[in-house]
Each structure stands twice: as structure tokens, then as C-alpha cells.
Amino acid sequence: MLREFASDFRANRKNPITLCALFTYRFGHGVYYGTRGKFLRKSLWLVYRVMDLIFVRLAASGELHAQAKVGRALHLPHGLNGIMISPKAVIGEGVTIFHQVTVGGRSQLGEPVIGNHVLIGAGAKILGPVLVGDYANIGANAVVIRNVPDYATAVGIPARNIDREEPIPEHLR
Fold first, then answer.
1. Would you identify the family this protein belongs to, as annotated (predicted)?
2. Domains of the chain (ranges plus CATH)?
3. pLDDT per residue over 22-66, tens digit each?
């Protein structure tokens, strides 16, 4: 837990509210997946729920459930401002998420799995059982409901994949 939070600290050191929210997530994740003993787990879970309410939902204005699996060095340049991450979502290491992003399920179909070093633009929605590959970019306000391969860029509503080896059209520059 502390090693993961140290990498979060390096990625977000200028935003103390975001650091409080990420510490709360790491604490809750550790309690949910690593605490043995019914009484201890319930007691620590209660502490987590209070921290979640204060630091994540009220102060940071977002949702980052302890059950979600988030890799190291999650970078939130604008804080947790409006970011909603589903309890069953999986997010890789070194991911950058801008404000007002939703990573969630769609009609009981499943949850997104986001690879390593992905950049997710402001207002993007990643919905359902999609796989977002490593080093992919999700454009601002894109609605991703299909898989995005490694090194690709997804833009539009619904999002379409643009392979980075191809030239980017003028209207998207």
C-alpha cells in the first residue's frame, strides 16, 4: 500500500486534496483485499467509509471505490474532479485521467480494463467490457464502447480508433 501511494505522491505532489483521496483509496483497497479477521476488517472498513465520504466524495468531488484495481502512479492533473471509477474497473500503471471521466459498466455486461500508460482526456466515458491497450490515448469527450488497441487513439461518439502510425487528419490536430 505504501509503495503504491509513494508513486501516486510523485505523480500528484502539487495537489494535496488529490493525495488525500488517493491515500483513502489505497487504504480502503488494502482493507478490502488484505485484512484478515472479521472484527478488524469491519472496524477498518468503517474508518475507510468515513475517509471516503470526507476526502473522496466531498473534498475531491469524485468516486474511486476501494474494490477497483488501480496500478501505481495514477496521475490526476485536475484532481478527482468529477471522475467516476466503477468498483470492478481495472486500471494499469502510469495512467493519466483528466477531469469529468467515467470508467464504468454498461447494463451488467462488464467493466473496463485499462492498460498501462494510457491518457484519458477530459469528459471521456469508457463503458462496458472494453479493453484499452497500453500507451493508448482516449480523446476528450470520447465515448468508448469498443476495444482500443495498444498505441491507438480513440476519438468521437461512439469512439473510433485511429492508429498512430497513420497520419492524423487535419480536423483532429
1. Belongs to the transferase hexapeptide repeat family.
2. 1-64 (no CATH), 83-173 (2.160.10.10)
3. 999 999 999 999 888 889 999 999 999 999 999 999 999 999 999
